[in-house]
Amino acid sequence: EVQLVESGGGLVQPGGSLRLSCAASGFTVSSNYMSWVRQAPGKGLEWVSVIYSAGSTYYADSVKGRFTISRDNSKNTLYLQMNSLRTEDTAVYYCAREREEMGLAFDIWGQGTMVTVSS
Amino acid sequence: DIVMTQSPDSLAVSLGERATIKCKSSQSILYSSNNKNYLAWYQQKPGQPPKLLIYWASTRESGVPDRFSGSGSGTDFTLTIGSLQAEDVAVYYCHQYYNTPRTFGQGTKLEVK
């Protein structure tokens, strides 16, 4: 079964760090474009970052310089390292596969992991 | 950045009636080399992740009921639910993947009247 499972969320103080993981099954992370998308409580979807199959990475301006997307091919897992966290980073974080045959629409999503930044 | 604007923000439709949601992009998301619009529609129910309904603006994802249809090109797009069912109550988002940053519309909350 093709699926994504996120983990690593939790409560962290402003200025702190957290690393999110997204374990994939049924397909190969490194062969796909993979994104992180977040959703603040009661709000809409905000794209955060993408890693291309070739390894290039891109970020939303709101997280550039603070977040780092990466992957571990041996573990078939995607990561999001989040540093210098702010209260406005509080959200459910989803990982998603961008399906190349669909032009990179997000066809598979994880269930999400909640990140709360608060003192 | 490409701004995606949906209308309306919320919508109440009677069961069995048609629901129409619009999405406008701040620039064309039609890729001339393949004549495809890089637009998707997602459905999100409370406590669940988004679910892909439509890609290429009008292609239904496998398993999506045929009462869902997408149309439009360039900058103006429409998601239509032909005959509203109770299980269609959700928030719907349009999404452009023409370039980076990928951007989403603000969402349209669909309820039963």
For this entry, give a set of tags.
heterodimer; A: 119 residues; mainly beta; seven-stranded mixed β-sheet; four-stranded antiparallel β-sheet; 0% helix; globular; B: 113 residues; 13 strands
Description:
The complex is a heterodimer of chains A (119) and B (113). Chain A has strands at residues 3-7, 10-12, 18-25, 33-39, 45-51, 57-59, 67-72, 77-82, 91-99, 105-109, 113-117. In chain A, β5 (45-51) and β6 form a beta hairpin. The model of chain A has no long low-confidence stretch (mean pLDDT 97). In chain A, the strands form two sheets. In chain A, strands 2, 4, 5, 6, 9, 10 and 11 form a seven-stranded mixed beta sheet that branches. Chain A has a four-stranded antiparallel beta sheet with strand order 1-3-8-7, with no helix packed on it. With 119 residues, chain A is mainly β. Chain B has strands at 4-7, 10-13, 19-25, 30-31, 36-37, 39-44, 51-55, 59-60, 68-73, 76-81, 90-96, 103-104, 108-112. Chain B contains no helices and 13 strands. In chain B, 0% of the residues lie in helices and 51% in strands. The mean pLDDT of chain B is 97. At the A-B interface, β5, β9 and β10 of A face β6, β7 and β12 of B.
Structure at a glance:
The complex is a heterodimer of chains A (119) and B (113). By secondary structure, chain A is an all-beta fold.
**Overall spatial form of chain A:** globular
Radius of gyration of chain B: 13 Å
Order of helices and strands of chain B: EEEEEEEEEEEEE
Number of strands of chain B: 13
Q: Share of helix among residues of chain B?
A: under 10%
Assembly type = heterodimer
Low-confidence region ranges of chain A: none
The largest pleated sheet of chain A is described as: 7 strands, mixed
Shape of chain B: globular
User: What is the averaged pLDDT score of chain B?
Assistant: 97
- Amino- and carboxy-terminal Cα gap of chain A: 40 Å
Q: Report the structural category of chain B.
A: mainly beta
Rg of chain A computed from alpha carbons, rounded to a whole number of angstroms: 13 Å
* Proportion in helices of chain A: under 10%
First and last CA, distance of chain B: 36 Å
